[in-house]
Amino acid sequence: MLKPLAALFFYARFFRAFSVLGFRARVPDPGQPRLDFRGQRWVVTGATGGIGRAIALGAARAGAAVVAIARDPSRLATLAAEPVASPGRVETLQVDLASIARVRAAAGAIVDGGRVDVVVANVGVMRHDYSRTAEGLETSLATNLVNHYALVESLRTAKAIDGRSLVISMSSGGMYGARLDLAALEAADAAGHDGFMAYAQHKRAQVELTRYWNGLGPAAPVAHVMHPGWVDTDGVRTALPGFRRALARYLRSADQGADTALWLAATRPPVAAEGGIWLDRQLDPEHAFGYTRGGASAAELVAWLERRVVGAIGRPMA
Q: What is the DSSP letter of 291?
């Protein structure tokens, strides 16, 4: 009984801000500023559906050369066939984003193509079933967090991204319900796995990863973390069907979910000393409830991630 009541309170607390009503209130003119990404090279993960697809096409139609990363070759082909005016273009890279080895290989191919201006770590899954990858990681952890870290670190250490580059991490409003607990990032077995809570932990961890990258100094990329509000995506339809049925008329479109990522890349706002998470072009606090404060630090999270990487592939990221 307690869990349904907590969910009801959470949805009621954030309904106006996260629904399409919040977008309309905070972004009265989505067409401004006019986007111009000519001469830029982007990398977008989870690029074949929903928010990722909207970001990839939005950047390409504004002139960027976009490396679109996803797992399904047929959906990548469909994305590549979308009309994009020169000089923008979409190049595709088929990658299993749950595999560290394949993500690192993909990073190598990206490095060979030259410097990257913008990385959008968009991919995210909420899995209610429990499975482990061939490298021994719980699948949603590997997809949502470990390989998010692995991709950015591979590009950073190879100097494909630098102080002129931007990293945008796609978090979720669900992180407002989680205090970062390293022990809760990955369940040991199916009995201890809660897909909803794991997802919230992974998305809270992205906030701390952003803090870590912004603490590395001027040679490191600038990092921002955002969330898109409640968007009607394939992931929501699959993972939260009851939520979607109840709120279908209030969910945002994929383009509305992508808006803040494109705006961040166009305007390059400075990093706030107090951190924060972007929603609808505005920087909101990282915590909405007192109980989510005081969790694991950015340094503790990165040390934990390095241990998981070493355990999975036998060597550290560097």
A: G
Which residue do the tokens 């591979």 mark? 154
Task: Answer whether 90's CB lies under 8 Å from 53's CB.
Answer: no
Maximum distance among all Cα pairs of the chain, rounded to whole angstroms: 56
The domains found in the chain, sorted by start residue, are 2-313 (3.40.50.720)
C-alpha 146/C-alpha 208 separation (Å) is: 13
**Dihedral sign from CA coordinates of 286, 257, 16, 268:** positive
Name the pTM for this structure.
0.96
pLDDT per residue over 8-57, tens digit each? 788 889 999 999 999 999 999 999 999 999 999 999 999 999 999 999 99
Question: Whole-angstrom Cα distance, residue 69 to residue 80?
Answer: 11
Concatenated DSSP letters of 181-248: -GGGSS-SSGGG--HHHHHHHHHHHHHHHHHHHHTS-TTSPEEEEE---SB--HHHHHH-HHHHHHHG
Q: What H or E segment, with its residue span, contains residue 69? A: strand 65-70
The owner of tokens 């050369």 is: 65
Three-state DSSP at 41 gives strand
CB atoms within 10 A of CB 246: 11
